[in-house]
Amino acid sequence: QIQSGGGRVAVLHLGDSHVQGEEWTGPVRKALQARFGSAGRGLVVPLDVAGVSGALEQESASNVRWRARRIVTEQGTVPVGIGGITVWTDKPAFVLNLALTGAGETFDRVTVFTECGRGLGGLAAAEHPDARVLARGRPQTVEERYTVEQGDTLWGLSRDWGCQVRDIQRWNRLTSDLIRIGQVLVRRHRIRKLVPVDRSQFRVVGALGGDAGVGPCMAAVDLPAPADHVFLVGGGGGGVRLYGMLLERRTATGLLYHTAGVNGARFRHFNRTHGRG
């Protein structure tokens, strides 16, 4: 059907670090969409906001701190969605910006996977020309130190830190996989400096939330024009929990290539029942 010039096909690619960073899936997605047409970017998670390695040609930032839980984390009461990473904040005055930076990548329908009745004011467009810059802030590298404990391995630490083994080796000038108890390791990750944002700069183009139910839910908004970035704004309800967003071209035919990658993930992590902690 797609080869004959009509319809659309959706693919969901689950995986670990290679999928999270789109080292493999990014080129595959681009090649297939160049041949068969693009129905949109598909499922995305704000990885920068989650504090883990970002995906190809995608960036996210916010004016407040967000917490995150990844599907490989065994403990926790916050459920993880199909994207493999959940982010949440208790700050009601948040603005979250997610942007696609690849040439020609646009979307005109956004579906938000969230928690019913929790603090989402809506999907917004920027009235002020500097609003996007203000929401993004300035990137900076943060360095933290960690003391190796019994049972630690470079692979296990890379899974917990949301990076790759070779990253830890590079940061610490390690020439092998061996580490010892009591050894101090450096961890580096990039964050964006938080910049105050006046929410009056944003014009809400679609309402999200308002559902009085309990549990995960989804809300879709059709944009008035194609865009390459989107803002989520707080609704004064005490914060929000976000499982991911679906970015589509609603009338386009072709391929919709979803990716859900988490560093260190295995199939059992995705197959495990969500919400049991």
Notes on the structure:
With 277 residues, the chain is an alpha+beta fold. It contains seven helices and 15 strands. It has helices at residues 17-20, 25-36, 47-50, 131-136, 154-161, 165-172, 267-271, and strands at 8-15, 42-44, 58-62, 67-70, 85-89, 95-100, 107-115, 120-126, 139-147, 184-192, 202-206, 216-227, 229-234, 240-248, 254-261. Strands 2, 4, 5, 7, 12 and 14 form a six-stranded antiparallel β-sheet that branches. Strands 3-6-13-8-11 form a five-stranded antiparallel β-sheet. A two-stranded parallel sheet has the order 1-15. α5 (154-161) packs across α6 (165-172). The longest helix has 12 residues, at 25-36. The radius of gyration is 19 Å and the shape is globular. The N and C termini lie far apart (42 Å). 38% of the residues are buried. The model has no long low-confidence stretch (mean pLDDT 80).
Helix tally equals: 7
Overall radius of gyration: 19 Å
Please mark out the parts with pLDDT under 50 across 5 or more consecutive residues, or reply none.
none
Helix content: 10-25%
Structural class based on helices, strands and sheet pairing: alpha+beta
**Termini gap:** 42 Å
Order of helices and strands: EHHEHEEEEEEHEHHEEEEEEH
What does the average pLDDT come to? 80
Count of beta strands: 15
What percent strand?
A: 35-45%
> How would a crystallographer describe the biggest sheet?
6 strands, antiparallel
What's the shape? globular
